[in-house]
Amino acid sequence: MGQIILSGVTKRFGDAEVIPPLDLDIEDGEFVVFVGPSGCGKSTLLRLIAGLEDTTAGRITIDGRDATGMPPAKRGLAMVFQSYALYPHMSVRKNIAFPLRMAGASQAEQDRKVEAAAKVLNLTSYLDRRPGQLSGGQRQRVAIGRAIVREPSAFLFDEPLSNLDAALRVGMRMEISELHEKLRTTMIYVTHDQVEAMTMADKIVVLNAGRIEQVGGPLELYRNPRNLFVAGFIGSPKMNFISGPEAQRFGAHTIGIRPEHIGVHPTMGDWRGVVGVSEHLGSDTFFHVHDTGLAPGLTVRAGGEVALRHGDTVFLTPEADKIHRFDQNGQRL
Amino acid sequence: MARAVTPQRKLLNTVLAWAVALLLFFPILWTFLTSFKPEPIAVASPPQFLFFDWTVKNYVDVQNQRNYFDYFWNSVIISLGSTILGLAVAVPAAWSMAFVPGSKTRDLLMWMLSTKMMPAVGVLVPIYLIFKTLGLLDSRIGLTLILTLINLPIIVWMLYTYFKEIPGEILEAARMDGASLMSEILYVLTPMAVPGIASTFLLNVIMAWNEAFWTINLTVTDAAPLTKFISGFSSPQGLFYAKLSAASTMAIAPILIMGWFSQRQLVRGLTFGAVK
Amino acid sequence: MSTQASRSAARLMLSPAVGLLLIWMIVPLVLTLWFSFQRYNLLYPDRSGFIGLANYVNFVGTSGFLDAILNTLILVVGVLAITVVGGILIALLIDQPLWGQGIVRILVISPFFIMPPVAALIWKNMFFNPTNGLFAELFKFIGLRPFDFLGQAPLGSIILIVSWEWLPFATLILLTALQSLSSEQLEAAEMDGAPPVKRFWFIMLPHLARAITVVILIETIFLLGIFGEILVTTNGGPGNASTTLTYLVYKEALLDFDAGTAAAGGVVAVILANIVAMFLMRAVGRNLDA
Questions:
Q1: Are residues A115 and A157 in the same domain?
Q2: Nearest-CA distance A54 → chain C (Å)
Q3: CATH number of the domain where residue A222 is located
Q4: Full domain range(s) for residue C105
Q5: pLDDT of B1 above 60
Q6: Which residues in chain B have their CB less than 8 angstroms from residue A152's CB?
Q7: Is residue C10 one of the residues assigned to a domain?
């Protein structure tokens, strides 16, 4: 089981309200990602759930029990830290066994569970090394192993991939997703990287200044962002925003259109502009188009083979049904 | 500074550095040499360096005059005892300040350090009277207690600076893994801080060993450590250079040798963690 | 960044240390304050009673009081100057490539391990003695009249002994700090055309600021209480030439048996030490935070 309910959870550091009263339901077995820019309170929220920080007000319920005042150890959760937080003076085996040792498990049980976890995580041949002798990815797996053996009701991940290089990050992303498929245990994952959020989550919680901007599945957020913040945060490259007369033509204060929803043509279209920098990724090309008179610059996705040069004139046409409309408060219309 | 220097330059550095080092070390060396001289040679003019009739008579004389080992054991017990006691009190305190810092932590640390600035003579009379009342005069327990209190601020500060270098996330991980506060300190913090605790330990043993105000003023014979042993040679025996040197060598040798062997850890400790 | 539970645990674990130090500070201080207002001479225990500020007047009126304050200042500042400047020079030297660095380090650090009474006895008898001390021999050798160090320059001689004891400490801290200076910074300065002296002045010295602060803080704490060296070498004399505040209090208490006046002196010393401490902590505390 791993159902977590936050009701009215608030956190203040002195006078600063980091998290205004917040409600959130996390269902058993869900993979939930907290995403938002740095300083949005996502890590603090995770630490509140973990019990590493006190809530100023509100209730945290884990599997129907009020856990608000419980110490971290009693909550039945496991956490993987950004720095991995491995115990440098213990071997990998001892690291993974530590939670079992603290729970007073017998040596035989410790051995059995450590071996099992090591097998799942491909760590068997590293069990007698120290963390200092492992690569970043291996350390990450040890941290996960230490979490697994507790058989927690939920896993908490605090930006676990941010210290890895790009290639490794993609690999670990898949491993964590697979682990979730296998264990079907609730996972709460904090990241500032919307790609991680989109690729891994069942449910994304977009946070901004301690407030929940929107909760939903990846595609739901992509298709129906509730406000300008979510629209701008989810999706890569960022959604283009246009305000002024062109937006009013659509009956909105601001309209948004994703780069992938704009057609490019050399001679005809709705909007005219000049090509600036272009980024060739092979499969796709992103053009930055200037002098449209609509916005300082628009990003447009075209096929990988489209050949346009710096200074060429192009015509852009948005897909009408993919235009997002927002009012003057930034809310979706 | 991976840049190569010319051999001439390196030679010059070597000569200069050795000259300075030997100059600083010379008083100790001279004492050591003199301790093996017959008394007349010790005051000979011009001074004799190496070529004299080496003798251990001075050591025998000193030992006959007062039993070195009584003092030695008192020094060992008092300096080890006060350091261990100090660590036992300081480890939890340093844990608190390093991992649960409050707005007053810095002030608290500075206050602790400032208690060390209190001139010992200023409170000698009351402490003497309290000790007399409690029957602690000339007792190892009393002296151990005093030295613990004197060195406590330094121990706390040193441990604090070492603990600060341990990432808090690791302790939080232990907490998430179900460790109680005791297990957290015992199984995670302490093993990680071993180098720091070791150098704190060494430095404080040395400071306690060499403490010469309280140890001299609060003891007579029973608890008298080596500082008292040597102060007995101040006069008129001070005029017997060879015997004085032998006694001095006996008083400083144990801690000097320990200091040499633990030099690496000590250097780290000496900087009080404040210099990286 | 913590929970209520860990904060209360922290308070609990902090309390033994704080409690002990509080007792250690308050009890003797209160007793000293009490004695300082009493007629209390160890030779005449029957003559007692409250005498107001007489002890203070007595102590401050002692002929040596101002001398003692001045001597204390000269001692502390003198030793600090010698050890910091000497420490920087020696550290710069040892930091250069040379043969036998490890042994050089051990030799330089050694004086730090010597207990003060031993240091004072060695220097007093075997070096400073005007008839057969090594310095006298040296002076005779180069054709000078032997100089009576402890008689003619008592305070200077004590400064020399104490500096010898503390130079290793300063050197080691400064050496450690020097070694942590990234060579890239020095190379950048060299590329910018800074000659060695300017590299030292503009790059190394600012880098050493923190280490120098630590040296000054720690040494001052110990130097204010310097006692054994004076007792063994000069007994504060000749006259009051080498009597520090610490030693003056000691003289009142244990040589004149006037515990009341000694207590008053103790209070004065504590007050002065706290003034120094306050200045020091202000200056240093900030520097240490960085």
A1: yes
A2: 5
A3: 3.40.50.300
A4: 16-289
A5: no
A6: none
A7: no
Task: Out of A192-206, B168-182, C156-170, pick the least confident.
Answer: B168-182
Contact A330, A291 (CB under 8 A): no
Under 8 Å between Cβ of C107 and B24: yes
Q: Is A287 left (phi over 0), alpha (psi -120 to 50) or beta?
A: beta
Same domain, A14 and A93: yes
* Total domains, chain C: 1
Where residue C214 sits, what CATH number does that domain have? 1.10.3720.10
B10 → closest Cβ in C98, C125, C132 = C98
User: Does B273 score more than 60 pLDDT?
Assistant: no
For the record, the structure tokens of A55 come out as 């809530």
List of E strands, chain C: 38-41, 44-50
Q: Looking at the complex, does the CB of residue C5 fall below 8 Å from at least one CB of chain A?
A: yes
Instruction: Tell me the sheet residues that pair with A286.
Output: A279, A301
Contact C113 B255 (CB under 8 A): yes
User: Is residue A331 situated within a structural domain?
Assistant: no
Between positions 149 and 168 of B, the ones with CB within 8 A of A are: 167
Same domain (yes/no): A33, A50: yes
Nearest residue in chain C measured CA to CA from A54: C3
Whether C249 is covered by a domain: the verdict is yes
Residue B276 C-alpha, separation from nearest chain A C-alpha, in angstroms: 21
Gap between the Cα atoms of A216 and A24, Å rounded: 12
CA C264 to chain centre: 23
Which of A44, A74, A102 best probes binding to B when mutated, by most B CB atoms within 10 angstroms?
Answer: A102
Q: How near does any CA of chain A get to the CA of B112, in Å?
A: 27
Q: What 8-state DSSP symbol labels residue A31?
A: E
Q: Where are the domains of chain B?
A: 20-60, 65-270
A332 in any annotated domain = no
Write the CATH number for A288. Answer: 2.40.50.140
Sheet with A254-257, side-by-side order of all strands? A240-243, A254-257, A324-326
- 3-state SS of A281-293 is CCCEEEEEEECCC
**One domain, residues A44 and A149:** yes
How large is the average pLDDT for residues B111-118? Answer: 78
Phi-psi region of B104 (alpha: psi -120 to 50; beta: other; left: phi over 0): alpha
Chain segment C210-245, per-residue pLDDT in tens: 888 888 888 888 888 888 888 888 877 787 788 888
Task: Name the CATH superfamily, with its identifier, for domain B65-270.
Answer: MetI-like (1.10.3720.10)
- Give partners of C (≥3 CB pairs < 8 A): A, B
- Pair A180, A271 in one domain: no
Question: pLDDT tens, C181-213?
Answer: 877 887 888 888 788 888 888 888 888 888 888
Contact A54 C3 (CB under 8 A): yes
pLDDT at B2 over 70: no
Contact (CB<8Å) B255/C115: yes
| Residues 57-86 of chain A whose Cβ lies under 8 A from any Cβ of chain B | 71-73, 77-79, 81-83, 85-86
- Residues C106-137 have pLDDT tens digits of 899 899 999 998 999 889 888 888 777 888 88
CA distance B152 to B85: 9
Residues of C in contact with B45 (CB under 8 A): 132, 137, 140
CB contact under 8 A, A71 and C5: yes
Q: What is the ipTM of this complex?
A: 0.86
Q: Which residue type, as a one-letter code, is found at position C6?
A: S
Q: Which residue ranges in chain A fall short of pLDDT 70?
A: none
Domain limits for position A311: 238-326
Handedness of CA C58, C61, C62, C68 (dihedral sign): positive
Q: Do C1 and A54 touch (CB under 8 A)?
A: no
